[in-house]
Amino acid sequence: MSAADPLQVLASAGKGESTRSVLRVIILALIAGAAISSRLFSVIRFESIIHEFDPWFNFRATKYLVANGFYNFWDWFDDRTWHPLGRVTGGTLYPGLMVTSGVIYHALRALTIPVDIRNICVLLAPGFSGLTAIAAYLLTNEMTPSPSAGLLAALFMGIAPGYISRSVAGSYDNEAIAIFLLVFTFYLWIKALKQGSMLWGALCALFYGYMVASWGGYAFITCLLPLHSFVLICMGRYSTRLYVAYTTWYALGTLASMQIPFVGFLPVKTSEHMPALGIFGFLQLLAFLDYVRSAIPSRQFQTFLWLFAGTAFGVGLLGLVVATSMGFIAPWSGRFYSLWDTGYAKIHIPIIASVSEHQPTAWPAFFFDLQMLVWLFPVGVYLLFQELADEHVFIVVYALFGSYFAGVMVRLMLTLTPVVCVAAAIAVSHLLDIYLNAKSPENPDAAADKDADGKKGGKAGLKSTNKPLVGIYAGWVKSVIVSSFAIYLLLFVMHCTWVTSNAYSSPSVVLASRLPDGSQHIIDDYREAYQWLRQNTREDAKIMSWWDYGYQIGGMADRPTLVDNNTWNNTHIATVGKAMASSEERSYPIMRQHEVDYVLVVFGGLLGYSGDDINKFLWMVRIAEGIWPDEVKERDFFTARGEYRVDGDATETMKNSVMYKTSYYNYQNLFPPGQAVDRMRGVRLPEVGPQLTHLEEAFTSENWIIRIYKVKDLDNLGRDHASAVAFDKGVKKKKPAKKKGPRVLRVE
Amino acid sequence: MRLLPTVLSLLGCLSTTALAAAGGSGGAKPSANLRKLPPGERFNLFHGKATASSAAAPLKLVEADYRALVATPRDYSVAVLLTAMDARYGCQLCREFQPEWELLARSWTNGDKQGESRVVFGTLDFNDGRDVFMGFGLQTAPVLFFFPPTMGPHATPSSDPLRYDFAGGPQAAEVVHHWIARQLPNRPHPPVKRPINWMRWISTFVVVTGGATASYVAWPWVLPVVRNRTVWAAVTLIAILMFTSGHMFNRIRQVPYVAGDGRGGISYFAKGFQTQYGLETQIIAAIYGILTLSGITLAVKVPRIADPKTQSIVFVAWWSILFVVFSLLISIFRTKSPGYGFAVPPFM
After folding, report:
1. What is the ipTM of this complex?
2. Alpha helices, DSSP H only, in A49-116?
3. Residues of A in contact with B299 (CB under 8 A)
4. Which residue of A lies nearest to B235 if distances are taken between CA atoms?
5. Distance from CA of A505 to the nearest CA of B (A)
6. 3-class SS at B121?
7. Quick one: CA dihedral A161, A165, A168, A172, positive or negative?
8. What are the boundaries of each domain within chain A?
9. I want to staple B84 with a disulfide (CB 3.0 to 4.6 A). Which of A441, B141, B215, B280 is the partner?
């Protein structure tokens, strides 16, 4: 019986409690490993590089923190951004991310492991995603007795594209650690609520404070926990457990959040924090009434008390509305308000509407980010309705609000993903638990007998669960469901890998394209241009560009900028927009006033790169028009037929704008006469390109993506630049100076 | 790629050819004596007309009045809306803006009875002033012209009118008020006063009290529904399915319900990853709903069926639905995202 022995061992191995725990730890470690490694595509394909825009600021701030220490970082006034205003950076950022990497850096240093701060920053997000998977495991285990649900949730959380989108290696953004903190705070909240424990409540507040220090999305927790409590109260489930958990969390958590300079007194002053405060007050009232009720037995009096509680709640709500309209409490900030009134941002705050992350989500995006979880998610929510304990109510409330917010704003898919993973894992594990049970019910009659004994009172539960659970009779039924779900899960893994590899692993600083022979070609214009700035300009040369590139210029070129991705000053951004949208003569004084030395524009016409400045130009115009409606008019950039054109039929205002001129200057010389084509917009350009008077070309990158122009100094002879250029041209005609050959496209 | 360019299309209501075709005989001859009056008296005359009754502003002008009103020199400002209200021209924009314009003119004129801001509001319809429209070479209506004063303390160097286009659709009175106020610095700007909508208040009151009474009366019947867990579960699931199938996108972007495919047929699915149609999201929501329902049935209902044979039949039915519909979903997604390479039979 040698063959039976290993089988026996295997079968008994899964039975012991300690072996199970060991297995569970190993599986969790493997899941964390899978979560980390699936996020490394970009490091392997490109290199260990910080991605996109915002991460470059976080990286720069982390370097500052590591170099100058925590207190200097806290008091940091940055005079190299928002020239000439500067930015009180220490007081206007969420320091959690930088401090986390700083602590890791110093800890590794203390262990004498020499590691570059950049590598810590690049790998922070994958590392924390492993922790998120474990947090999802813990949260799910609080929801269901099934031991496999937690592991499935950890797996889903680890590889769901909805979360990978913001946490690949190099995506060094606040969300990198914030999602872990979000899930873990929820876990601690559930723990505190179930046990009515002050210790867990305090831990919850601690992690809530960490979350506030890390991401502006903390408001999601600030609103969801009171909402959960409110729903519980409405269901008549007020308990001392709820009272202890909530008040501990609120008191300590609010104090913790107020320690962050950027948050400061907002928790007592703004509308988005008012639900938490209101429920805190309401709970005190309920606790008092609960006490009185237990002391006085009269029934009428109890009714009176509940009416009293309801009235107090209504009066409190009314007081809040009045205080808001009187201005004691700041109304909802634009970003939050636009979540409710979805048309608001488009009309009033073009700078919010212009960000593509703030667009609503079409259904393919949901499927892309969640695949089969998107329909397993409601199944899990339904299963939670069966028991509907306090913690299940939390998942239901979270599911509803999470899916609403994710529908309104693409980036909030991130906050929906954890609950989808938890609910879907509950659904799949429930299915597998039923269909993987090797024991079949013996015969229908025996089952019917049991049925008579164990009939549940169906009034409280769902209608569908009135009948008792029998089990699955046929073996083939079990094998069909198990094999089909095995295939679906495999497909899910392949889908996630494909999505991560194709959609979310591009650094967007370095672009990749395919050559006709199928080999990969790296387009590295951004870094080429920033390197040029770093090496060829004065250290305090001010660069004017659209705000998207502010963080990158600060991080990679280390040059002062006028505006950057921290869009705190709309007027300043509008000034840059006006300078870009006006003619050279009008924008020259603006540039002189702001001491601009170089103008940087992004041009995708040669490569067909869609993210260029001409495509963003209308937003610049719109934002500038919001401040100077008389000087910049969006209408002037459209032809009489209402088209936005860049070719020969473009409007005069368009052709004279600094943006148009700097984008297309000299471009026609790349082509045979009259054949210049803008590959992005697919139009033929006029034979005679724009002429520059107040600017001169300083640098153009290999593929013409980045073009840098120097702002001319005042003319030596006191002429205006237009006449000086005209004069120079006249001289040139008589005595042709060193003739420049036509520009040739450098091809490798 | 944070910025999305949007192309704004101009709302043109009326073309010059249509104007020429539809116009009748021209306006009256310019009354020379009115134009000869000194500017101060002209203002008093028109302002007196406008304040004669509370509904007199904006003045309904004919071409002669118009010419007299905008004649130089003038020490007052004129805001004239050139519009085409006649049903023949089908100018939707004109009709939508007209009440706002009247509201603006009335609240301004009645708020400034003394004429301190020295503005006259007028409306010139196409039927009454065809030549004026031709003179400006107008292609579209409505257009608002603002004539600044040419003499007096607020005179501007240019006597040319400023033009306000309705490129963004019909504007609220406040928006136009803001524009006019900007042209009139250092003068009073009487705010727009919207009349109280009594009907709305009354109807809200009636609906609220009626609702409260009805719910009080029906409370014994409503309470079991409110407390029914199955009802709540259904509402929750429907809401989740609605949101995850892109309903909010439809609301915000106001996408069309369906669109033609250019060959006379109907295209149910929009081309491209970032777009969708109304019907498309309903189909997707239905697919998600069927998948969810089969998942629930397999997880909850099937193991509760006591009879082995029935259990097997129900299982096969729901499992095949799940299998086929999920495959259909993936194949629909493939049409939206052409690079997607995964498939499950039968829709390969």
Report:
1. 0.84
2. 54-74, 96-110
3. 379, 383, 427, 430-431, 434
4. A400
5. 15
6. strand
7. negative
8. 15-270+332-430, 524-734
9. B141
